[in-house]
């Protein structure tokens, strides 16, 4: 997700051409910066997820535009019925996003009856084969 303030009239695939202001912008994912042909440099924020590779990135460390900090993924219900309450209360959804550790822990306590004092403790309680917890980080 790329969030830009202002009116955007056209976006090319690898560069950003805002025709209304005649500014050509090129984004560098490594630096998280947009370079403008007008000479200015504007920082942008990114929320990236590639679950197959275990990549969860949020470059908005202050949470001004992108507040997601955690994701819970419910993959399959265990045969031993140990997580039935959680799966029943998810109403078929599998992906859940949280803005804070507190909201993550509260959701699991209310929906699944699973109490934990931290995200790490919650990960230790859950079987990663059925429910996984991911934290968005800023690698830059």
What are the segments in which pLDDT stays under 50 over at least 5 consecutive residues? 1-19, 21-25, 30-41
Number of helices: 3
Let me know the number of strands.
Answer: 9
Rg, please? 19 Å
Distance between the termini: 17 Å
Strand content: 25-35%
What's the story with the biggest beta sheet?
4 strands, antiparallel
State the shape: globular
Strand order within the widest beta sheet? 1-2-3-4
What would you call the structural class? alpha+beta
* Helix coverage percent: 10-25%
Mean pLDDT: 76
One letter per element, helices H and strands E, the order comes to: EEEEEEEHEHHE
Give the SSE layout:
Elements: E1 15-18, E2 23-28, E3 33-36, E4 41-43, E5 47-50, E6 55-58, E7 70-74, H1 84-89, E8 95-98, H2 101-112, H3 119-125, E9 131-135
Antiparallel strand pairs: 1-2, 2-3, 3-4, 5-6, 7-8, 7-9
Short description:
This protein has helices at 84-89, 101-112, 119-125; strands at residues 15-18, 23-28, 33-36, 41-43, 47-50, 55-58, 70-74, 95-98, 131-135. It contains three helices and nine strands; from the N terminus they run E-E-E-E-E-E-E-H-E-H-H-E. Strand 3 (33-36) and strand 4 (41-43) form a beta hairpin.
Written overview of the protein:
The structure is a single chain. Helices cover 18% and strands 28% of the residues. The chain has 140 residues and is α+β, with helices and mostly antiparallel strands. β3 (33-36) and β4 (41-43) form a beta hairpin.
Search tags:
alpha+beta, three-stranded antiparallel β-sheet, four-stranded antiparallel β-sheet, globular
């Amino acid at each position: 997700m790329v969030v830009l303030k202002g009116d955007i009239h056209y976006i090319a695939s690898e560069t950003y051409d805002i025709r209304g202001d005649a500014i050509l912008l090129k984004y560098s994912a490594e630096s998280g910066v947009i370079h403008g042909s007008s000479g200015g440099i504007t920082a942008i924020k990114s929320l990236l997820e590639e679950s197959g590779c275990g990549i969860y990135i949020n470059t908005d460390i202050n949470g001004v535009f992108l507040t997601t900090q955690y994701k819970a993924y419910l993959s399959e219900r265990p045969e031993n019925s140990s997580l039935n309450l959680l799966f029943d209360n998810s109403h078929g959804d599998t992906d859940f996003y949280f803005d804070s550790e507190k909201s993550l822990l509260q959701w699991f306590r209310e929906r699944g009856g699973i109490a934990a004092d931290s995200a790490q403790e919650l990960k230790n309680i859950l079987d990663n084969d059925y429910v996984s917890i991911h934290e968005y980080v800023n690698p830059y």
